[in-house]
Amino acid sequence: METEIIERKAREFEELTDLQRIKTLFERFLNNVEMKGKDHRRNAFFRGKVGSLSNDIITFQMEIHSATLLKDTEITLTRFVGRFIHIEGTIVGAAPNHIFIIRIDSIKLAKKARVSSRLNPGPDVVYATNFKVVRAAISVDSMNIPTFIKITFSDYENKLLKKFDKIKIDIFRPSNEEKFHLVQSTGKAIFIKDTQDPKSYLPFSEEEFLNCEEEFFEDIEDVIKDYKQKKITSEIIMPIIILNGLDDASPIGYVHIQSHTKKIEFDDLMEAKMLTFEMIDRIRESNTMLYKQKVEVLNISAEGIRIKLIDLDIKQQIQHVGGFNMDIVFKMQTPINVSVIIRNILKDPSGNQSIGLEIDGFRQSDKERYLDNLFALSRPTK
What percent of the chain has a predicted confidence (pLDDT) above 70? Predict the structure, then answer.
């Protein structure tokens, strides 16, 4: 069984189109080199050794013993040689001695080379712990609203009531008016500063706000009249957008604000927006799991770290997230908190699992401590 590599963070690539660069790549880095491959037809993995490149730089040979590849099968080949190389190809022929002819469909090189070498510390030198992992998704519907969300909504309703005439924070429901469904489907807010001014139905920014004149309201005059009858001077509907573990945006509810006595100014809108962000952070925190297990560090560098996972619960949660927070602890040192992005997950035939992590951020002053400890590890012992 081949070791499986699951890429979880898209690398930044440049595609090679210049034939001379492709020729140089094969001659200097790939000739007689083993690459990992994937057969897309059978979803199977294999290894093979790169052979000669054709004179027209359209195909190349590859010696593959561990797989039976049919003609027209699409494959992917990968190799790290200073930079990550990604080749998409198609099997177009075969020759004796397990030689396959592969047409080059595309060749890509990772733009970012690994800046620093990786160190392999012992388990008693450095470890990872205190994993804060946001659950993959929040399940919300009219029949099943988690208690922590109900409590959070109520708390922030009370905070905003001190500022505005009418506040309602709730999940989206089928019975909502059409404008709520539009906020939910677009992820954009509605802000009408003066319901009696047609210009107020145009957005400050089309990236964040709905154009009520064009996208929602069919007859502005009737809408203005309706607002006047209901004595509504200003209105805001903001989506409550939660990022799940894989950074997919999910609008789970809304903040509905109305003013009957005065116009809501833009500064008031921003204050409400900041409180909404604060509320979202609190919901995410309530939806976060903390794992205190000590985890072995397989290798470590200035930019990233690879850790070995054993706990089944952590393994299951990490399958569905794009990143998380954790502590890195060097021997005799206080923990260094980092946020990390999952680059890849490796599963070997024995069922062991490790994850490659890119360090995305540090607490204030922790980066310097981290680099100092790395430098100490890199120095040869006397």
Answer: 88
Distance CA 202, CA 189 (A): 12
Report yes or no on whether pTM surpasses 0.85: no
Strands (E), 202-350: 234-243, 249-259, 288-291, 295-300, 304-309, 323-330, 336-347
Cβ within 8 Å of residue 56, ≥6 positions away:
none
Judged by DSSP in three states, 92 sits in: strand
By the 10 Å C-beta count (0-12 exposed, 13-18 middle, 19+ buried), 172 is classed as buried
- What gap in Å lies between CA 213 and CA 217, rounded to an integer? 5
How far apart (Å, rounded) are the C-alpha atoms in residues 140 and 174?
13
Number of other residues whose CB lies within 10 A of the CB of residue 27: 11
- Given a contact cutoff of 8 angstroms between Cβ atoms, the answer to whether 255 and 264 are in contact is no
What is the DSSP pairing of strand 126-134 with strand 295-300?
antiparallel
The tens digit of pLDDT for each residue in 31-44 reads 888 888 888 877 77
Per-residue pLDDT of 59-90, as tens digits, reads 999 999 877 788 899 999 988 766 678 999 99
